[in-house]
Design a protein that fits this description.
This protein is of the alpha+beta class. The chain has one domain: Aminopeptidase (3-Layer(aba) Sandwich), CATH 3.40.630.30. Helices cover about 30% and strands about 30% of the residues. It contains 4 helices and 5 strands. A 5-stranded mixed sheet has the order 1-2-3-4-5, sandwiched between helices. The longest helix has 15 residues. The protein is globular. The protein starts with a strand and ends in a 16-residue tail after the last helix. The relative contact order is 0.16.
Amino acid sequence: MYTIKRIGIEEKEQIKELFASVFTKEPWNDDWSDKEQLDCFIMDLIGQGYSLTYGLYEGDEMIGLSMGYIKHWYVGTEYYIDELCIRQDKQGQGAGTFFIKSIESAIKELGLKQIFLQTNNDVPAYEFYKKLGFTELETHVSFAKDV
C-alpha cells in the first residue's frame, strides 16, 4: 500500500509540486506564486548536508512529504521537521499515521532520539500530532518580527 523512502534534490520538482498543492489550500492558504522563492525555500530544506527528507509513496506516486534536518541537541540528536504534508485527497485514510510511524522507525535506525516540530493550534494537524503521542511544549514560544 504505502512505502517510505529517503529523498533529496533528485526529487525536487515532485517535492515542490506536492508542497505547493497542499499549502496553497485550506487551512494554510500560503501564497507560493513566486516560483523562485518556492525553489529557494525547498532547496533550503532539502539541499543542505544535514537535511533529512522523506517521501511517502503509494505505488510510484509521492503522496506525502517530510522535510527537515538532523539537529544535535543536549538530549540527543533529533529530527527537526520543518514541513510535513499529505496530499489532501489522501488525508484521513491512515497515510499520515503510517508516514509518522515509518519516520520514527527510520530515524531510530539512524540513531536519532526525538522528533521536534511546530504547527499552529488552530489547524487539523494539531490534533493529528496529539493523537500520535506528540507532547505540546507548554513553555515553548515562537517569536517573529518584521524588519
